[in-house]
Amino acid sequence: MERILVSACLMGRKVRYDGAAKTSGDALLAAWRREGRLVPHCPEVEGGLPVPRPAAEIEGGAGGAAVLAGAARVLTAEGADVTGAFLAGARSALAAARSAGIRVAVLKEGSPSCGVLTVYDGTFQGHRVPGGGVTTALLELHGVSVFTEHQIPAAAVRLRELTRAHGDP
């Protein structure tokens, strides 16, 4: 059975920077949960950041790949550099994916860790730019297909493709 890495906040865990959850009501995600397929993970908490914590954004809206390459940092609005925690969290998510044989992830859009299509631009003004978060970039670099909470049907298609390709039940 294919397992799926999922942002813990989408599963109702109060791990976001503001101490809240972003619980998903998606029926397919609920079905996967009942089937025991989901592996909830919060890279920011696993990277050592507290709940609540100051909001953070990738400087210049550069995206997670730039952070992995050392070309950008993750900063709080006050200028504190939290890049190390974001990198540690991304490595933790990759380790969790590898240990469970995960090839698909559903992550929280917009997050500097988990954003898939967009991240905030680093100005703390609520503006988004195209690009993914640090965890998304590392997972994709290692062959994990990453989807937002709004792309769960596409994640299901990918799971079916993987299952057929490997002859899994």
Protein architecture, described:
The protein has six helices and eight strands. It is an alpha/beta fold and 169 residues long. The protein has a domain at 56-105 and 122-147. Strands 2-1-5-8 form a four-stranded parallel β-sheet, with helices on both faces. Helix 4 packs across helix 5. The chain is globular and about 50 Å long. It starts with a strand and ends with a helix. The model has no long low-confidence stretch (mean pLDDT 96).
- The SSE order reads EHEHEHEHEEEHEH
Average pLDDT for all residues: 96
Distance between the termini: 7 Å
Low-confidence region ranges: none
Helix count, DSSP H or I runs of 4 or more residues? 6
Q: For the largest beta sheet, what order do the strands appear in spatially?
A: 2-1-5-8
As a percent range, the share of helical residues equals 25-40%
Number of strands: 8
Strand content: 15-25%
Q: Which structural category fits the helices and strands?
A: alpha/beta
The geometry reads as: globular
- Major beta sheet summary: 4 strands, parallel
Rg from alpha-carbon coordinates:
15 Å
